[in-house]
Specification:
single chain; 253 residues; mainly alpha; membrane; DUF4239 domain-containing protein
Amino acid sequence: MNDLVIALIVFACVFGSAMLGLFLRAMLPEHHLSEESIGVVKLATGLIGTIAALVLGLLISSAKSSFDTVNSELVRNAASIILLDRVLAKYGTETQEVRGLIKQSYGRSIQILASRDPAELARLRGSEVLKQMESLQRKLEELSPRTEAQRQLQASAIQIAAEVLAVRRLALLQSAGSVPITLLIILVLWLSIIFGAFGTFASPNGFVIAALLLGALSASAAIFLILEMNTPLDGVISISLAPMREALAMLGQ
């Protein structure tokens, strides 16, 4: 499901609970709204609010860490691709075909990432792309070095290519992370209980409704941020492809 749709559902649940609380206030007997009752409910709501705040904070921190990790790994991958191309250039003209294939494959990967299409991104994680990378590795292994310098360059190229493949696969796997649906449902339930209590013990007026609206928007925006940063290769909040495009421009020179 689209992250924005989930955020809107969260907003509807949280703000709807607040409005339900305002409605129930008019229906409850007076003794349910006594200071003793309100005090107990505030204590319970405070406990739930603390737990919800901790979970939200941990989820945001985890999502930001995942986002930064994927970003740094793709930058590292771009640097390794440039290094691989330069090593092959030093090897000699025999690597011209392999360098061309690397540039073509890397350019295609950037196009898929730039499309932000989940179906296309799934292809990058598929076996077809993995086989293409393994085919490039075999071409490097099939080179026939004539000098000691070329043998060292071939060994370096094979090692760098293996690292590029490993980092790329790791980044793609980490970018597919998602928030467990059970955790999300429980968190929304907690937020709904909190806002329901806010509405129940507040006098219904325009200022209160506006405050509850802004609070519900903030809570749903936090959920939206978490979901978006957990999928850094697509969506509204995504990593920059500028380092990869700069690396592509340097390949083959």
